[in-house]
Amino acid sequence: MTGATNRASRDRTLRLAFVSAVVSLVAVFAAVGSTIPLFNIHRAEDGFTNADISLTVVDAAPTRPAWLASVASSQTVMLGLAVGAIASGALVQFGPWPRDLIYVVVISVLLLTVLLIAISPETVTRAPGGWRSLRPSVHVPARVRRLLPVAAAVFLATWATGAFYQAFVPALIADQLHTNNSLILGLVFAAYMGPSALGAPLAGRFTPAAAQRIGMTAFLAGWVGLITAITTGALPLFFAASVTAGAAQGIAISAATRGLLFGSALPDRAPTFSVVYLLSYSSATIPSLVSARLANVYSLRHIALGYGGLALLCTLFTVVGARNPRPDTPSTVS
User: Fold this and answer.
1) Do 84 and 37 touch, CB atoms closer than 8 A?
2) 326: which DSSP letter?
3) Are 153 and 318 in contact (CB under 8 A)?
4) How do residues 161-176 score in pLDDT, each as one tens digit?
5) By CB neighbour count within 10 A (0-12 exposed, 13-18 middle, 19+ buried), where does 52 fall?
6) Per-residue DSSP letters for 106-119?
7) Of 189, 164, 236, 184, nearest to 80 (Cα)?
8) 193 vs 64: CA distance, rounded Å
9) Cα–Cα distance, 122 to 12 (Å, whole number)
10) pLDDT digits 0-9 by tens, 72-113
């Protein structure tokens, strides 16, 4: 009975750690997403340009369902951004102190996450070498290294699109889709980010390669709808295309992450996620830097076409090159 009691107690503490980690990730990225409905205020009142704006856990997861760890680690970013954008849009549109209230809310939520983390159990055994552990370790196990180029293409297209939404969609909504409603802006941004968390579990129904092909093909279809909506000024179509692209990116990103985590042991995970996030944030920032320069020369419609072209190239590369991990490959890391 003692062993069963200990296992039950450990399961409860790990569930707390998992919930705390997920809430913390959502809260952090909600803080990021909360700034997006304010962009048009900054453009109108502070003289910001589009170019200015464009420059701005797994160990505790349950073993079943198997896709939960990759979904939680890859999609809390998108969910947090969506929650932050909607909450901020509503407060900016209907609440007092439109430039300040959201930051009070965000700080309160972040303080709550600090408390949750403080009372959560550690998931690894303490050992000497804490300072050495701070040295960056960026690599993936040799058994999944051949999956990395296609995963990079998935991260490039999807995270670049997320940065496009963050930097340019506020101006598109105001200038081309003809509305200044901050809640609408938050909802449009959330229409892309939120469905990502809903689409992600669907990836578990397919092999990683098939899910990446399906996800990226649907993602490209979403981009076709986005460009059509921008050209015609059709806000409902923009919403629908955003939902399509968002759900599709959830499928593709989760499948790519699941492939890279295939057969991973505990020491593999931190270096693998270092690679995932290095690729992801580079995919968001580098196109943003380029488009920030081009925004002074080209219209938002032309910038959108450029991002759509990037999505096309990455989709073609994924459809041709997607592979499944090999279960019989040795798990050495090099």
Assistant:
1) no
2) P
3) yes
4) 988 987 787 777 777 6
5) middle
6) HHHHHHHHHHHHHT
7) 189
8) 25
9) 13
10) 555 556 666 666 666 766 666 776 776 777 777 777 877 877
